[in-house]
Every structure is written in structure tokens, then in C-alpha cells.
Design a protein that fits this description.
This protein is mainly α. It has 13 helices and 4 strands. Helix content is about 70%, strand content about 5%. About 25% of the residues are buried.
Length: about 325
Amino acid sequence: MTTIQQRDGAPVTGPRPRRRSRLRRMRDDWWIYLFLLPTLVGYGAYTIYPLVASWWYAFLDWPGFAATGTFVGIENFDRLMDDELFWNAFWNSIVFLVISVPLRVGLALALALVLNRKKTPFKGFFRTLFFLPVVTTGAIVGIVFTLLLDASGPVSGALVWSGLTDTPVNFAAEAETSLYSGIAVWVWKWLGITLIYWLAALQTIPADVHEAAMIDGAGAWREFRHVTLPMLVPFLVIITLIDTVAALNVFDLMQTLTAGGPSFSSEVIEIFIFRTAFGATVPQLGYASAAAVLFGLLTMLIAVVQAVGIRWARRRTGSA
């Protein structure tokens, strides 16, 4: 027996409601899992199985032609440690991440501050304009910018016309500029989604806080530095970590824009894995799988940091 408190405060005595066991609920609601079955089968076949299989292939010497490979233990991982092209791709990915994430986060924040102001005209138009590249396929963006950044394209033509350079520059096909061109295009493409994140974060700041800062005589910069920015710190952690993970998944854009060239100057880890597995004269699926495993571990490490950062940010936001 238990006492249940009603809304009007009058206690009602009666038997405690019985909770169904988990197994009983699954048996009674079997039809729900029937609807989930196609998704579970597809997820298992195209996500779980390749993930597990790649860990097994990483320990095989397997070109992909034979039915099975030869077990070589950690030999593939030893080769990777001495592979200059792997480390070149690794550091290219790190450079891509270190430059692109602050650019994307910082530019999006600056735009969000402008578009969040009540006096800014055509705010809806500019928000849509900046978000349009997000819904465009990365491969299509890469192909289009290959033409725009060509030596005969409009970007090089404008630089020559303005006198900033004497000769045309093929930004996506020169070793000194190919990786940085990819960074610029990637930031442009995904700037809109980070802008939406920042606009949502700015909406959480109460209007009376800004009004109090104005009454105290704080200018725009002092208000941002001492009022807005401290309240955005938890969101800064979350947005930065989300963009960091995204910066490691740039295969479609970089493959169509530069294909890792010239001379591997813009080859990131994803392109290294693809080239090793499918682009080589003799495919090395086992070796490529070992590289994919290391890349996956790096991504998992960042994901763990992301989870810890989000948890900290939620506690910080809840206590504010």
C-alpha cells in the first residue's frame, strides 16, 4: 500500500502501480521493433559491420583480390610509423584543423553578432544567404571551386587585374596554396551552420542584461567583452568541439578540389586511406584499414573530449 498525493492535496491510499519489466514491455510492444528493423539492418550492414571488419583487416596483408588475407599482426601499424606519406597526410589534417576551426568559429561569431542586432536590415536574407552553401553537396562545391580557382578563373583574373599578382595563379593546383585553398572553401561552405549555432546561443542571453550594460554606459566592445562573451563560453566549447570533429571529415571536398595534390601537398588522412585502398596499382586494403583504425582512434579521442566539454558546458549553463 502507498499514499498518493493528488493535486488538491488530498491523500489517496491505494496499491502502488505495478511497473512492467523491460522484457514484458518489449514483448508487448513488439510491433515498434518491427518498424525499426529495416533501419537496424541497414545500420548494421553499412556501419557496424564495416567498422568491425576494418579492425580485422588492419591485421591482414590483403590486396583485396584474394578471398582472404594473410595475418601479419601489427606489421601494418609498424609500416605506418615509418611511412612519410602517412605522416604527411596526418600533419596536413592537423594543419587543416588548426587553421580552419578558429576561422570558422570566429567568423561565424562575428556574423552572428551583426545579424543578431535589431537594427541590422535584411537579417533573414543574409541568414539564408550564408546557410545556402551548407545544403550544397561537398563534391559539387569542390568541382565548382576547381573552376573558380583555376589560373584562367575569375579569382586569379581579379588578382591580376588589381595588380596584386603579376601572373595567373592556380590556387588548387599549386603546392604552396592547395591546402589553404581547401581550408578557405571548407570554411565558406560550413560557415552557415556555425552561424546558426551562434545565433541560437545569443538568443539565450536575456535582453535585460544588454539593457543594463547600456544603462551603465558600456560601449559595444566593453559589452561584448565583459557581458556577452563570458555568457557564451559554454557554447564556445560545444561549437568548437563540433567543428573540430567536422574538420576531420573533408574527403568529398578535398578529393574533388585537389585530390591530395600536387605532390601530396594537400593530402589529408581520408584521401591517404582512399588512395592506398583503391587508387594504388596494387590495392592495399589491410594497410589502408590500419591507417583508418588510427584515424578512427584520433576521432574517438576528440569525441571523448567533446563529450566531456559538452557535459562541463551544460553544468556551467545550468549554474548560470
